[in-house]
Amino acid sequence: MKPIALTLAASLAALAAPLAAHDGHVDAYEMPDAMPDAMEAAGDRVDGDPAEAPSAEEGIALAMLPSLPPGSNEVLRSSLSLAEGLEVIVSDVVIPPGATVPRHYHPGEEFLYLIEGTATHVQEGQADIAMTAGDGYAIPARAIHAPRGGPQGARAIVFRVHVAGQEERVLVPAE
């Protein structure tokens, strides 16, 4: 194992326990107290035998994303300093397995990054788009869409830019 992998493994070990019990909010510069010790321990291993790297059997666990209810879970809402009158909304969107989000549009543009599962992006006027974790997509302002969760459901980080004060989402009756 390369030295950087040893440091990463030790860093993840130090992060796993505090994040598992965390409320889901992590400040940009927040670091668990155990992190420096874990990094120092990894540094000792870097100079030593790579076979001594921490293993899963030694309690190494990757931090899991916090569990959230289905729907759009707002993470951040902020005005844009370089574009007066516009705001950004960042949401963690959870779509249950096989569920379809009601038809809707957003007054502004929407950008998404699928982080878990699979989904089908269903948008009026275009072919359906099959999406898997790691895919990204930009949805134009006012595009009517109704995404559908795959067999295991889907989770996406969604970033919206629109005029401040407008509704985030406008439902559209079924035709």
The fourth-level CATH homologous superfamily of the largest domain is: Jelly Rolls
Structural class: alpha+beta
Compute the CA-based radius of gyration.
21 Å
**CATH topology assignment of the largest domain:** Jelly Rolls
Coarse morphology? globular
Give the % helix.
10-25%
So what's the CATH class of the largest domain?
Mainly Beta
> What do the pLDDT scores average to?
73
Low-confidence stretches: 1-63
Please state roughly what percent of the residues sit in beta strands, choosing from under 5%, 5-15%, 15-25%, 25-35%, 35-45% or over 45%.
25-35%
Describe the structure in your own words:
This protein is globular. A hairpin with a 7-residue loop joins β4 (about 110-120) and β5. Helices cover about 20% and strands about 35% of the residues. The protein has helices at about 5-20, 35-45, and strands spanning about 70-80, 85-95, 105, 110-120, 130, 135-140, 150-165, 170. The N and C termini lie far apart (about 60 Å). The relative contact order is 0.17. The protein contains 2 helices and 8 strands, in the order ααββββββββ. The strands form 2 sheets. Strands 1, 2, 4, 5, 6 and 7 form a 6-stranded antiparallel β-sheet that branches. The protein has a two-stranded antiparallel sheet with strand order 3-8. It folds into 2 domains: about 5-60, no CATH class; about 70-170, Jelly Rolls. The chain is of the alpha+beta class.
